[in-house]
Amino acid sequence: MTISRYTGLSLTEIYKRHTIIRPISYEEFFKKFDILYGIKWDEDKLYNSILDVTSEIKDDACSGALISVSIDKYYMAGMEIKQILNTFRQARKDAYAPIDYLLSLRYDSSQAMTKILTDYVSLHDDIFQVFEGVDLVGNEKEMPRNNLNEFINPWRTHNKIIRAHVGEYGEEEHIAYAVRSLKITRIAHGFCVKDPNIIEEIKDKNIPLDICISSNFLTKNIKHVIDHPLKKLVSHGLRITLGTDDPTVFNTDMSKELRYCKLLLGDGFENFYMRLCHETY
Q1: What is the per-residue pLDDT across 163-176, written as a single tens digit (0 to 9) for each?
Q2: Using an 8 Å Cβ cutoff, are 156 and 162 in contact?
Q3: CA separation for the pair 191, 232 (Å, rounded)
């Protein structure tokens, strides 16, 4: 495992610090990523870490993956943004399985980091050659509604994916805001949606919900796996995709997530699986 090589920690210690083994709070969840900020990142470490991920994707028998990545930890370690982008580009070329990237930005990111990225996007087109879109992540209750559009607008202009993590920790109002004001093209999670008007709007705009069952359970958004509303979402005719969120942190893979789907959907699993196989991003 790359993290073990670059931190000097044993696999047991990595598992203890980075992997969730019981349901935890939102605050505890984000502390799981602190270990990544302790690494002195450079081009070789970043390149090898991406190839390790793609090796796992290949082993999981997936045809490809859309990976959400933040760049702040690499920037804070002293790497230049252009250097980071070139490394991502080369790693995608050499990957063991087809991948594309989303640029992840936390709702509670510092104003300085948001400005750095916004300014870079306004001056350079190379970022659009590396990333297929943006991924707004974190505690949706902290969504800074005043400055997100400034960051997102250039991505819209380039017809890129705009994904937001909403309807996970918060209320339906966050889904409505993301759909209507941010004009997102994908929703990460979104499983709390119940309002028929919002459901119809999501369907009319053909916005998929990227569902991650292990993640929802281990971050205390559902009490038990069996409580996940996947069956209801499917019955509404919503587009659903399935993911692992972060396979290392949530100790999961696609096989495990599919088993959960089968448990939740019963006889409806086969039809769902056939639809899932034809989904693309």
Answers
A1: 999 998 767 899 99
A2: yes
A3: 9
